[in-house]
Protein backbone atom coordinates (compact mmCIF):
# COMPACT_ATOMS: atom_id res chain seq x y z
CA UNK A 1 0.00 0.00 0.00
CA UNK A 2 1.31 3.47 -0.87
CA UNK A 3 2.27 5.73 2.03
CA UNK A 4 0.83 8.83 0.19
CA UNK A 5 -2.66 7.41 0.48
CA UNK A 6 -2.33 7.10 4.22
CA UNK A 7 -0.93 10.68 4.41
CA UNK A 8 -3.83 12.03 2.40
CA UNK A 9 -6.29 10.34 4.67
CA UNK A 10 -4.61 11.76 7.77
CA UNK A 11 -4.54 15.27 6.24
CA UNK A 12 -8.14 14.93 5.14
CA UNK A 13 -9.42 13.93 8.56
CA UNK A 14 -7.37 16.72 10.21
CA UNK A 15 -8.79 19.43 7.88
CA UNK A 16 -12.26 17.90 8.13
CA UNK A 17 -12.08 18.05 11.90
CA UNK A 18 -10.92 21.68 11.96
CA UNK A 19 -13.54 22.82 9.42
CA UNK A 20 -16.33 20.82 11.02
CA UNK A 21 -15.75 22.06 14.52
CA UNK A 22 -14.93 25.61 13.34
CA UNK A 23 -18.28 25.93 11.49
CA UNK A 24 -20.03 24.35 14.44
CA UNK A 25 -18.63 26.90 16.91
CA UNK A 26 -19.36 29.83 14.51
CA UNK A 27 -22.93 28.59 14.19
CA UNK A 28 -23.25 28.39 17.95
CA UNK A 29 -21.69 31.86 18.43
CA UNK A 30 -23.56 33.58 15.60
CA UNK A 31 -26.76 31.64 14.96
CA UNK A 32 -28.10 32.42 11.52
CA UNK A 33 -29.53 30.58 8.51
CA UNK A 34 -26.25 31.09 6.66
CA UNK A 35 -24.08 29.41 9.28
CA UNK A 36 -26.67 26.61 9.68
CA UNK A 37 -26.74 25.78 5.95
CA UNK A 38 -22.93 26.10 5.84
CA UNK A 39 -22.71 23.43 8.54
CA UNK A 40 -25.19 21.19 6.68
CA UNK A 41 -23.35 21.65 3.38
CA UNK A 42 -20.04 20.76 4.99
CA UNK A 43 -21.57 17.55 6.41
CA UNK A 44 -23.12 16.60 3.03
CA UNK A 45 -19.86 17.13 1.12
CA UNK A 46 -17.12 16.02 3.49
CA UNK A 47 -18.78 12.90 4.89
CA UNK A 48 -19.13 11.07 1.50
CA UNK A 49 -15.57 12.11 0.65
CA UNK A 50 -14.40 10.56 3.91
CA UNK A 51 -16.29 7.33 3.22
CA UNK A 52 -14.83 7.26 -0.30
CA UNK A 53 -11.31 7.56 1.03
CA UNK A 54 -11.93 4.81 3.63
CA UNK A 55 -13.42 2.48 1.02
CA UNK A 56 -10.60 3.33 -1.38
CA UNK A 57 -8.07 2.38 1.29
CA UNK A 58 -9.90 -0.89 2.13
CA UNK A 59 -10.32 -1.65 -1.56
CA UNK A 60 -6.60 -1.20 -2.10
CA UNK A 61 -5.96 -3.60 0.84
CA UNK A 62 -8.43 -6.18 -0.52
CA UNK A 63 -6.98 -5.94 -4.01
CA UNK A 64 -3.54 -6.47 -2.58
CA UNK A 65 -4.80 -9.55 -0.63
CA UNK A 66 -6.56 -10.91 -3.70
CA UNK A 67 -3.48 -10.55 -5.88
CA UNK A 68 -0.91 -11.87 -3.41
CA UNK A 69 -3.21 -14.34 -1.59
CA UNK A 70 -1.48 -13.20 1.59
CA UNK A 71 -3.32 -12.33 4.81
CA UNK A 72 -0.04 -11.56 6.52
CA UNK A 73 0.15 -8.12 4.77
CA UNK A 74 1.42 -5.41 7.11
CA UNK A 75 0.16 -1.83 6.98
CA UNK A 76 2.83 -0.16 9.06
CA UNK A 77 5.85 -1.79 10.64
CA UNK A 78 4.71 -5.14 11.93
CA UNK A 79 1.12 -3.98 12.49
CA UNK A 80 -1.63 -5.39 10.32
CA UNK A 81 -4.64 -3.44 9.18
CA UNK A 82 -7.71 -4.24 11.32
CA UNK A 83 -9.53 -5.49 8.23
CA UNK A 84 -6.66 -7.89 7.42
CA UNK A 85 -6.53 -9.07 11.02
CA UNK A 86 -10.27 -9.59 11.01
CA UNK A 87 -10.22 -11.54 7.73
CA UNK A 88 -7.28 -13.68 8.87
CA UNK A 89 -8.99 -14.49 12.15
CA UNK A 90 -12.19 -15.41 10.34
CA UNK A 91 -10.36 -17.49 7.73
CA UNK A 92 -8.46 -19.34 10.44
CA UNK A 93 -11.71 -19.85 12.33
CA UNK A 94 -13.37 -21.18 9.18
CA UNK A 95 -10.36 -23.38 8.48
CA UNK A 96 -10.42 -24.88 11.98
CA UNK A 97 -14.16 -25.53 11.74
CA UNK A 98 -13.82 -26.99 8.25
CA UNK A 99 -10.98 -29.20 9.56
CA UNK A 100 -13.17 -30.45 12.41
CA UNK A 101 -16.08 -30.95 10.01
CA UNK A 102 -14.01 -32.87 7.48
CA UNK A 103 -12.29 -34.93 10.16
CA UNK A 104 -15.54 -35.95 11.81
CA UNK A 105 -17.11 -36.59 8.40
CA UNK A 106 -14.11 -38.78 7.48
CA UNK A 107 -14.49 -40.73 10.75
CA UNK A 108 -18.20 -41.01 10.12
CA UNK A 109 -17.59 -42.27 6.58
CA UNK A 110 -15.00 -44.76 7.85
CA UNK A 111 -17.37 -46.24 10.43
CA UNK A 112 -20.36 -46.13 8.06
CA UNK A 113 -18.28 -47.80 5.35
CA UNK A 114 -17.21 -50.48 7.82
CA UNK A 115 -20.84 -50.89 8.91
CA UNK A 116 -21.77 -51.13 5.24
CA UNK A 117 -19.25 -53.94 4.80
CA UNK A 118 -20.57 -55.76 7.87
CA UNK A 119 -24.16 -55.17 6.76
CA UNK A 120 -23.35 -56.52 3.30
CA UNK A 121 -21.85 -59.64 4.88
CA UNK A 122 -24.88 -60.05 7.13
CA UNK A 123 -27.18 -59.53 4.14
CA UNK A 124 -25.33 -62.18 2.17
CA UNK A 125 -25.40 -64.53 5.19
CA UNK A 126 -29.13 -63.96 5.69
CA UNK A 127 -29.71 -64.65 2.00
CA UNK A 128 -27.64 -67.84 2.25
CA UNK A 129 -29.58 -68.87 5.37
CA UNK A 130 -32.85 -68.09 3.61
CA UNK A 131 -31.76 -70.17 0.61
CA UNK A 132 -30.78 -73.03 2.94
CA UNK A 133 -34.13 -72.75 4.70
CA UNK A 134 -35.93 -72.87 1.37
CA UNK A 135 -33.94 -75.95 0.40
CA UNK A 136 -34.64 -77.46 3.82
CA UNK A 137 -38.33 -76.63 3.40
CA UNK A 138 -38.33 -78.41 0.04
CA UNK A 139 -36.62 -81.45 1.62
CA UNK A 140 -39.07 -81.47 4.53
CA UNK A 141 -41.92 -81.18 2.05
CA UNK A 142 -40.56 -84.27 0.30
CA UNK A 143 -40.22 -85.99 3.67
CA UNK A 144 -43.82 -85.01 4.45
CA UNK A 145 -44.97 -86.51 1.17
CA UNK A 146 -42.91 -89.67 1.81
CA UNK A 147 -44.23 -89.84 5.36
CA UNK A 148 -47.79 -89.46 4.13
CA UNK A 149 -47.14 -92.21 1.58
CA UNK A 150 -45.56 -94.38 4.32
CA UNK A 151 -48.54 -93.72 6.54
CA UNK A 152 -50.85 -94.93 3.77
CA UNK A 153 -48.67 -97.99 3.15
CA UNK A 154 -48.52 -98.68 6.89
CA UNK A 155 -52.32 -98.56 7.00
CA UNK A 156 -52.53 -100.96 4.06
CA UNK A 157 -49.95 -103.24 5.70
CA UNK A 158 -51.94 -103.20 8.92
CA UNK A 159 -55.13 -104.10 7.09
CA UNK A 160 -53.31 -106.84 5.13
CA UNK A 161 -51.89 -108.19 8.40
CA UNK A 162 -55.38 -108.18 9.92
CA UNK A 163 -56.73 -110.04 6.92
CA UNK A 164 -53.86 -112.52 7.11
CA UNK A 165 -54.53 -112.94 10.82
CA UNK A 166 -58.16 -113.67 10.15
CA UNK A 167 -57.25 -116.22 7.46
CA UNK A 168 -54.74 -117.91 9.78
CA UNK A 169 -57.35 -118.07 12.55
CA UNK A 170 -59.84 -119.59 10.10
CA UNK A 171 -57.19 -122.11 8.95
CA UNK A 172 -56.40 -123.01 12.57
CA UNK A 173 -60.10 -123.48 13.23
CA UNK A 174 -60.48 -125.70 10.14
CA UNK A 175 -57.36 -127.66 11.13
CA UNK A 176 -58.76 -128.15 14.63
CA UNK A 177 -61.98 -129.51 13.15
CA UNK A 178 -60.00 -131.75 10.79
CA UNK A 179 -57.92 -133.07 13.66
CA UNK A 180 -61.10 -133.76 15.63
CA UNK A 181 -62.65 -135.51 12.59
CA UNK A 182 -59.47 -137.50 11.93
CA UNK A 183 -59.28 -138.47 15.59
CA UNK A 184 -62.92 -139.59 15.51
CA UNK A 185 -62.42 -141.49 12.27
CA UNK A 186 -59.23 -143.03 13.64
CA UNK A 187 -61.12 -144.19 16.72
CA UNK A 188 -63.90 -145.62 14.54
CA UNK A 189 -61.38 -147.38 12.34
CA UNK A 190 -59.70 -148.78 15.43
CA UNK A 191 -63.09 -150.06 16.55
CA UNK A 192 -63.66 -151.49 13.04
CA UNK A 193 -60.22 -153.10 13.17
CA UNK A 194 -61.03 -154.68 16.50
CA UNK A 195 -64.43 -155.84 15.20
CA UNK A 196 -62.80 -157.27 12.11
CA UNK A 197 -60.36 -159.12 14.33
CA UNK A 198 -63.27 -160.61 16.27
CA UNK A 199 -64.96 -161.56 12.99
CA UNK A 200 -61.75 -163.29 11.93
CA UNK A 201 -61.72 -165.17 15.21
CA UNK A 202 -65.37 -166.20 14.70
CA UNK A 203 -64.59 -167.26 11.16
CA UNK A 204 -61.74 -169.36 12.44
CA UNK A 205 -64.19 -171.04 14.79
CA UNK A 206 -66.66 -171.54 11.95
CA UNK A 207 -63.89 -172.89 9.76
CA UNK A 208 -62.97 -175.36 12.49
CA UNK A 209 -66.59 -176.38 12.92
CA UNK A 210 -66.95 -176.73 9.17
CA UNK A 211 -63.86 -178.90 9.00
CA UNK A 212 -65.13 -181.06 11.87
CA UNK A 213 -68.56 -181.29 10.22
CA UNK A 214 -66.92 -182.29 6.95
CA UNK A 215 -64.98 -185.05 8.78
CA UNK A 216 -68.09 -186.22 10.60
CA UNK A 217 -70.04 -186.26 7.34
CA UNK A 218 -67.30 -188.27 5.69
CA UNK A 219 -67.28 -190.75 8.58
CA UNK A 220 -71.07 -190.94 8.44
CA UNK A 221 -70.95 -191.64 4.70
CA UNK A 222 -68.47 -194.41 5.29
CA UNK A 223 -70.59 -195.93 7.98
CA UNK A 224 -73.68 -195.61 5.82
CA UNK A 225 -71.89 -197.36 3.00
CA UNK A 226 -71.07 -200.14 5.37
CA UNK A 227 -74.71 -200.41 6.36
CA UNK A 228 -75.72 -201.01 2.77
CA UNK A 229 -79.25 -200.52 1.75
CA UNK A 230 -80.23 -199.48 5.22
CA UNK A 231 -77.74 -196.79 5.30
CA UNK A 232 -78.53 -195.19 1.91
CA UNK A 233 -80.82 -192.52 3.34
CA UNK A 234 -78.34 -191.69 6.00
CA UNK A 235 -75.62 -191.57 3.37
CA UNK A 236 -77.59 -189.01 1.38
CA UNK A 237 -77.99 -186.89 4.46
CA UNK A 238 -74.37 -187.27 5.31
CA UNK A 239 -73.40 -186.25 1.76
CA UNK A 240 -75.53 -183.17 1.92
CA UNK A 241 -74.11 -182.25 5.28
CA UNK A 242 -70.58 -182.78 3.89
CA UNK A 243 -71.41 -180.59 0.87
CA UNK A 244 -72.85 -177.95 3.17
CA UNK A 245 -69.77 -178.10 5.31
CA UNK A 246 -67.52 -177.74 2.26
CA UNK A 247 -69.54 -174.74 1.01
CA UNK A 248 -69.44 -173.27 4.50
CA UNK A 249 -65.72 -173.83 4.63
CA UNK A 250 -65.34 -172.27 1.22
CA UNK A 251 -67.45 -169.27 2.27
CA UNK A 252 -65.54 -169.03 5.47
CA UNK A 253 -62.31 -168.90 3.51
CA UNK A 254 -63.73 -166.20 1.28
CA UNK A 255 -65.05 -164.28 4.28
CA UNK A 256 -61.73 -164.65 6.03
CA UNK A 257 -60.00 -163.35 2.94
CA UNK A 258 -62.38 -160.37 2.85
CA UNK A 259 -61.89 -159.81 6.55
CA UNK A 260 -58.13 -159.88 6.08
CA UNK A 261 -58.49 -157.33 3.29
CA UNK A 262 -60.68 -155.22 5.52
CA UNK A 263 -58.13 -155.49 8.31
CA UNK A 264 -55.29 -154.51 5.99
CA UNK A 265 -57.30 -151.65 4.56
CA UNK A 266 -58.36 -150.55 8.01
CA UNK A 267 -54.76 -150.72 9.25
CA UNK A 268 -53.58 -148.71 6.23
CA UNK A 269 -56.37 -146.16 6.71
CA UNK A 270 -55.56 -145.86 10.39
CA UNK A 271 -51.88 -145.38 9.54
CA UNK A 272 -52.76 -142.77 6.91
CA UNK A 273 -55.17 -141.07 9.29
CA UNK A 274 -52.49 -140.94 11.95
CA UNK A 275 -50.01 -139.50 9.42
CA UNK A 276 -52.63 -136.97 8.23
CA UNK A 277 -53.39 -136.11 11.83
CA UNK A 278 -49.69 -135.53 12.51
CA UNK A 279 -49.37 -133.37 9.37
CA UNK A 280 -52.50 -131.38 10.24
CA UNK A 281 -51.21 -131.01 13.79
CA UNK A 282 -47.87 -129.76 12.45
CA UNK A 283 -49.77 -127.44 10.07
CA UNK A 284 -51.78 -126.16 13.01
CA UNK A 285 -48.58 -125.52 14.95
CA UNK A 286 -47.15 -123.67 11.94
CA UNK A 287 -50.42 -121.75 11.64
CA UNK A 288 -50.26 -120.89 15.34
CA UNK A 289 -46.66 -119.70 14.91
CA UNK A 290 -47.83 -117.74 11.86
CA UNK A 291 -50.60 -116.31 14.02
CA UNK A 292 -48.00 -115.17 16.54
CA UNK A 293 -45.96 -113.66 13.71
CA UNK A 294 -49.06 -111.89 12.43
CA UNK A 295 -49.73 -110.68 15.97
CA UNK A 296 -46.23 -109.20 16.06
CA UNK A 297 -46.74 -107.75 12.57
CA UNK A 298 -50.06 -106.25 13.65
CA UNK A 299 -48.45 -104.78 16.75
CA UNK A 300 -45.49 -103.42 14.78
CA UNK A 301 -47.63 -102.06 11.97
CA UNK A 302 -49.89 -100.42 14.53
CA UNK A 303 -46.91 -98.88 16.30
CA UNK A 304 -45.36 -97.98 12.95
CA UNK A 305 -48.62 -96.42 11.89
CA UNK A 306 -48.78 -94.47 15.14
CA UNK A 307 -45.12 -93.41 14.91
CA UNK A 308 -45.48 -92.49 11.25
CA UNK A 309 -48.52 -90.42 12.12
CA UNK A 310 -46.54 -88.63 14.85
CA UNK A 311 -43.67 -88.09 12.41
CA UNK A 312 -46.11 -86.72 9.84
CA UNK A 313 -47.51 -84.30 12.42
CA UNK A 314 -43.99 -83.31 13.54
CA UNK A 315 -42.86 -82.86 9.92
CA UNK A 316 -45.90 -80.72 9.20
CA UNK A 317 -45.15 -78.61 12.28
CA UNK A 318 -41.48 -78.34 11.24
CA UNK A 319 -42.55 -77.37 7.73
CA UNK A 320 -44.80 -74.62 9.10
CA UNK A 321 -42.03 -73.47 11.47
CA UNK A 322 -39.44 -73.38 8.69
CA UNK A 323 -41.86 -71.54 6.41
CA UNK A 324 -42.39 -68.99 9.19
CA UNK A 325 -38.62 -68.69 9.76
CA UNK A 326 -38.02 -68.48 6.01
CA UNK A 327 -40.63 -65.74 5.73
CA UNK A 328 -38.99 -63.90 8.63
CA UNK A 329 -35.55 -64.35 7.06
CA UNK A 330 -36.91 -63.00 3.77
CA UNK A 331 -38.24 -59.94 5.58
CA UNK A 332 -34.92 -59.68 7.47
CA UNK A 333 -32.98 -59.95 4.20
CA UNK A 334 -35.15 -57.25 2.64
CA UNK A 335 -34.67 -55.09 5.73
CA UNK A 336 -30.90 -55.69 5.62
CA UNK A 337 -30.88 -54.73 1.95
CA UNK A 338 -32.79 -51.56 2.80
CA UNK A 339 -30.40 -50.86 5.68
CA UNK A 340 -27.46 -51.48 3.32
CA UNK A 341 -28.87 -49.00 0.78
CA UNK A 342 -29.55 -46.49 3.58
CA UNK A 343 -26.00 -46.94 4.84
CA UNK A 344 -24.71 -46.44 1.29
CA UNK A 345 -26.68 -43.18 1.10
CA UNK A 346 -25.36 -42.17 4.53
CA UNK A 347 -21.81 -43.03 3.45
CA UNK A 348 -22.28 -41.00 0.28
CA UNK A 349 -23.66 -38.09 2.32
CA UNK A 350 -20.74 -38.31 4.77
CA UNK A 351 -18.30 -38.50 1.88
CA UNK A 352 -19.90 -35.48 0.17
CA UNK A 353 -19.88 -33.59 3.45
CA UNK A 354 -16.19 -34.37 3.89
CA UNK A 355 -15.45 -33.36 0.29
CA UNK A 356 -17.31 -30.06 0.72
CA UNK A 357 -15.31 -29.32 3.85
CA UNK A 358 -12.12 -30.27 2.00
CA UNK A 359 -13.00 -28.01 -0.92
CA UNK A 360 -13.63 -25.14 1.49
CA UNK A 361 -10.28 -25.73 3.21
CA UNK A 362 -8.58 -25.87 -0.18
CA UNK A 363 -10.12 -22.48 -0.98
CA UNK A 364 -8.87 -21.08 2.33
CA UNK A 365 -5.42 -22.56 1.78
CA UNK A 366 -5.09 -20.53 -1.40
CA UNK A 367 -4.46 -17.63 1.00
CA UNK A 368 -1.28 -17.60 3.03
CA UNK A 369 -2.90 -17.73 6.45
CA UNK A 370 0.37 -18.30 8.25
CA UNK A 371 -0.86 -21.53 9.89
CA UNK A 372 0.87 -24.90 9.60
CA UNK A 373 -1.23 -26.23 6.70
CA UNK A 374 -0.61 -23.00 4.76
CA UNK A 375 3.14 -23.30 5.34
CA UNK A 376 3.11 -26.95 4.17
CA UNK A 377 1.23 -25.96 1.00
CA UNK A 378 3.74 -23.18 0.28
CA UNK A 379 6.70 -25.52 0.90
CA UNK A 380 5.11 -28.33 -1.12
CA UNK A 381 5.46 -26.29 -4.29
CA UNK A 382 9.24 -26.50 -3.98
CA UNK A 383 9.15 -30.29 -3.54
CA UNK A 384 6.76 -30.51 -6.47
CA UNK A 385 9.30 -28.73 -8.66
CA UNK A 386 12.21 -30.90 -7.49
CA UNK A 387 10.40 -34.22 -7.98
CA UNK A 388 9.02 -33.13 -11.35
CA UNK A 389 12.53 -32.26 -12.51
CA UNK A 390 13.83 -35.61 -11.20
CA UNK A 391 11.25 -37.58 -13.19
CA UNK A 392 11.77 -35.44 -16.27
CA UNK A 393 15.49 -36.23 -16.23
CA UNK A 394 14.66 -39.92 -15.80
CA UNK A 395 12.42 -39.81 -18.87
CA UNK A 396 15.20 -38.17 -20.88
CA UNK A 397 17.54 -40.98 -19.75
CA UNK A 398 15.12 -43.56 -21.14
CA UNK A 399 13.85 -44.83 -17.79
CA UNK A 400 10.39 -46.44 -18.34
CA UNK A 401 8.69 -44.22 -15.77
CA UNK A 402 5.31 -44.57 -17.57
CA UNK A 403 5.15 -48.33 -16.92
CA UNK A 404 1.77 -49.27 -15.42
CA UNK A 405 2.06 -53.03 -15.90
CA UNK A 406 1.97 -53.90 -12.22
CA UNK A 407 3.35 -57.39 -11.48
CA UNK A 408 2.27 -58.99 -8.22
CA UNK A 409 4.98 -59.88 -5.73
CA UNK A 410 4.42 -63.44 -4.54
CA UNK A 411 3.79 -64.12 -0.86
CA UNK A 412 3.24 -60.44 -0.08
CA UNK A 413 0.45 -59.51 2.30
CA UNK A 414 -0.67 -56.75 1.89
CA UNK A 415 -0.11 -57.20 -1.83
CA UNK A 416 2.92 -55.52 -3.42
CA UNK A 417 3.77 -54.93 -7.08
CA UNK A 418 6.80 -54.50 -9.30
CA UNK A 419 7.23 -52.07 -12.22
CA UNK A 420 10.14 -51.58 -14.61
CA UNK A 421 11.43 -48.33 -13.09
CA UNK A 422 11.73 -49.53 -9.47
CA UNK A 423 15.48 -50.16 -9.67
CA UNK A 424 15.95 -46.53 -10.76
CA UNK A 425 13.67 -45.35 -7.94
CA UNK A 426 15.77 -47.27 -5.41
CA UNK A 427 18.94 -45.54 -6.63
CA UNK A 428 17.42 -42.08 -7.04
CA UNK A 429 17.36 -39.37 -4.31
CA UNK A 430 13.53 -39.59 -4.17
CA UNK A 431 13.38 -41.11 -0.70
CA UNK A 432 15.89 -38.56 0.64
CA UNK A 433 13.73 -35.73 -0.71
CA UNK A 434 10.61 -37.27 0.83
CA UNK A 435 12.28 -37.91 4.20
CA UNK A 436 13.76 -34.40 4.32
CA UNK A 437 10.36 -32.80 3.73
CA UNK A 438 8.75 -35.15 6.29
CA UNK A 439 11.33 -34.29 8.92
CA UNK A 440 11.45 -30.56 8.21
CA UNK A 441 7.69 -30.09 8.42
CA UNK A 442 7.01 -32.83 11.00
CA UNK A 443 4.38 -34.52 8.84
CA UNK A 444 3.27 -38.15 9.04
CA UNK A 445 4.36 -39.07 5.52
CA UNK A 446 5.50 -37.55 2.23
CA UNK A 447 5.25 -39.84 -0.80
CA UNK A 448 5.15 -39.89 -4.58
CA UNK A 449 2.30 -41.83 -6.26
CA UNK A 450 1.49 -42.41 -9.91
CA UNK A 451 -1.90 -41.56 -11.40
CA UNK A 452 -3.30 -44.97 -10.38
CA UNK A 453 -2.26 -44.63 -6.74
CA UNK A 454 0.85 -46.85 -7.01
CA UNK A 455 3.45 -45.86 -4.41
CA UNK A 456 6.96 -46.94 -5.57
CA UNK A 457 8.98 -45.72 -2.56
CA UNK A 458 7.66 -44.78 0.87
CA UNK A 459 9.48 -42.86 3.58
CA UNK A 460 12.32 -44.87 5.11
CA UNK A 461 10.29 -45.26 8.32
CA UNK A 462 7.70 -47.27 6.34
CA UNK A 463 10.07 -48.95 3.85
CA UNK A 464 10.99 -52.08 5.80
CA UNK A 465 11.43 -55.45 4.02
CA UNK A 466 8.58 -57.96 4.05
CA UNK A 467 8.58 -59.85 7.36
CA UNK A 468 5.73 -62.25 6.68
CA UNK A 469 3.76 -60.80 9.61
CA UNK A 470 0.66 -59.23 8.06
CA UNK A 471 -0.02 -56.79 10.90
CA UNK A 472 3.61 -55.66 11.01
CA UNK A 473 3.94 -55.35 7.22
CA UNK A 474 0.72 -53.35 7.06
CA UNK A 475 2.38 -50.64 9.16
CA UNK A 476 6.08 -50.92 8.39
CA UNK A 477 6.33 -52.21 4.79
CA UNK A 478 4.23 -49.84 2.65
CA UNK A 479 6.39 -49.35 -0.46
CA UNK A 480 5.34 -50.81 -3.83
CA UNK A 481 1.69 -50.92 -2.83
CA UNK A 482 -1.27 -49.85 -4.93
CA UNK A 483 -3.42 -47.43 -2.91
CA UNK A 484 -6.47 -47.43 -5.17
CA UNK A 485 -9.05 -46.54 -2.53
CA UNK A 486 -11.18 -43.41 -2.90
CA UNK A 487 -8.55 -41.13 -1.34
CA UNK A 488 -5.63 -42.75 -3.14
CA UNK A 489 -7.33 -42.59 -6.52
CA UNK A 490 -8.24 -38.92 -6.08
CA UNK A 491 -4.68 -38.04 -5.04
CA UNK A 492 -3.19 -39.90 -8.00
CA UNK A 493 -5.59 -38.52 -10.62
CA UNK A 494 -5.71 -34.95 -9.29
CA UNK A 495 -4.61 -32.29 -11.81
CA UNK A 496 -5.74 -29.22 -9.83
CA UNK A 497 -3.12 -27.01 -8.20
CA UNK A 498 -4.01 -28.42 -4.78
CA UNK A 499 -6.18 -31.23 -3.42
CA UNK A 500 -7.06 -31.41 0.26
CA UNK A 501 -8.55 -34.64 1.71
CA UNK A 502 -9.40 -36.11 5.10
CA UNK A 503 -9.70 -39.86 5.63
CA UNK A 504 -9.08 -42.72 8.05
CA UNK A 505 -5.93 -44.63 7.15
CA UNK A 506 -5.93 -48.44 6.84
CA UNK A 507 -3.84 -48.45 10.04
CA UNK A 508 -6.54 -46.51 11.91
CA UNK A 509 -5.16 -42.94 12.03
CA UNK A 510 -7.31 -39.98 10.99
CA UNK A 511 -5.25 -38.22 8.35
CA UNK A 512 -5.31 -34.92 6.48
CA UNK A 513 -3.88 -35.32 3.00
CA UNK A 514 -2.45 -32.54 0.82
CA UNK A 515 -1.53 -33.48 -2.73
CA UNK A 516 -0.23 -31.63 -5.77
CA UNK A 517 0.08 -33.01 -9.31
CA UNK A 518 3.35 -33.99 -10.99
CA UNK A 519 3.51 -33.05 -14.66
CA UNK A 520 6.23 -34.27 -17.04
CA UNK A 521 6.37 -32.24 -20.26
CA UNK A 522 2.77 -31.16 -19.62
CA UNK A 523 1.67 -34.78 -19.24
CA UNK A 524 0.17 -35.87 -15.92
CA UNK A 525 2.27 -38.57 -14.20
CA UNK A 526 0.79 -38.64 -10.70
CA UNK A 527 1.20 -36.55 -7.58
CA UNK A 528 2.90 -35.92 -4.24
CA UNK A 529 0.92 -36.71 -1.11
CA UNK A 530 1.65 -35.20 2.29
CA UNK A 531 -0.20 -36.59 5.28
CA UNK A 532 -0.50 -35.11 8.75
CA UNK A 533 -2.87 -35.57 11.65
CA UNK A 534 -5.53 -32.94 12.47
CA UNK A 535 -4.10 -32.59 15.98
CA UNK A 536 -0.72 -31.53 14.59
Structure in words:
- A hairpin with a 2-residue loop joins β7 and β8.
- This protein has three domains: 66 residues; 225 residues, Helix Hairpins (Orthogonal Bundle), CATH 1.10.287.950; 162 residues, Beta-Lactamase (2-Layer Sandwich), CATH 3.30.450.
- About 4% of the residues have low confidence.
- The chain starts with a helix and ends with a strand.
- By secondary structure, it is an alpha+beta fold.
- The strands form three sheets. It has a four-stranded antiparallel β-sheet with strand order 3-8-7-6, sandwiched between helices. Strands 1-2 form a two-stranded antiparallel sheet. A two-stranded antiparallel ribbon has the order 4-5.
- The protein is 75% helix and 8% strand.
Task: Summarize the structure in short.
This protein is an alpha+beta fold. The chain contains 9 helices and 8 strands. The protein has helices at residues 3-29, 33-68, 82-227, 232-365, 372-396, 422-427, 430-441, 470-476, 486-493; strands at 407-408, 417-418, 445-450, 454-455, 481-482, 499-504, 510-520, 523-532.
Outline the fold blueprint.
Layout: H1 3-29, H2 33-68, H3 82-227, H4 232-365, H5 372-396, E1 407-408, E2 417-418, H6 422-427, H7 430-441, E3 445-450, E4 454-455, H8 470-476, E5 481-482, H9 486-493, E6 499-504, E7 510-520, E8 523-532
Helix pairs in contact: 1-2, 3-4, 5-7
Task: Work out the count of structural domains.
Answer: 3
The secondary structure category is alpha+beta
Give the CATH architecture of the largest domain: Orthogonal Bundle
Distance between the termini: 35 Å
Helix percentage: over 70%
Mean pLDDT: 74
Unreliable runs:
57-63, 65-79
Residues in β-strands, percent: 5-15%
Strand order of the largest sheet: 3-8-7-6
Family: Belongs to the methyl-accepting chemotaxis (MCP) protein family.
Transmembrane segments: 9-30
Protein name: Methyl-accepting transducer domain-containing protein
Keywords: Membrane, Transducer, Transmembrane, Transmembrane helix
Amino acid sequence: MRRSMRSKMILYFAIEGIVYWGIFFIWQAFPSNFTFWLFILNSLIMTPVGFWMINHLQGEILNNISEKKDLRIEVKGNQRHPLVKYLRQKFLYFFDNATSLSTEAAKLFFFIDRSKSYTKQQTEHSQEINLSLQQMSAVIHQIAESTESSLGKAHISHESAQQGMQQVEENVSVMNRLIESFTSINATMEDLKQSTGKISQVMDVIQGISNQTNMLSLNAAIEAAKAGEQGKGFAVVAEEVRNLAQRTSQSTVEISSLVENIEETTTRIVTELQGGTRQITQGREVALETKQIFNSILKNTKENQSDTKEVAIAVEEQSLTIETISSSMTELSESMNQIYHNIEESASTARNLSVQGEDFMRFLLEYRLGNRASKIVHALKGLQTEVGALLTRAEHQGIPIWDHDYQEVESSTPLKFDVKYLSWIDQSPLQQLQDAFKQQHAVFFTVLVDKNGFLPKHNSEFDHPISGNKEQDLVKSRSRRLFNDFTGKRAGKNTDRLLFQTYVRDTGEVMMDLSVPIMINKKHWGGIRVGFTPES
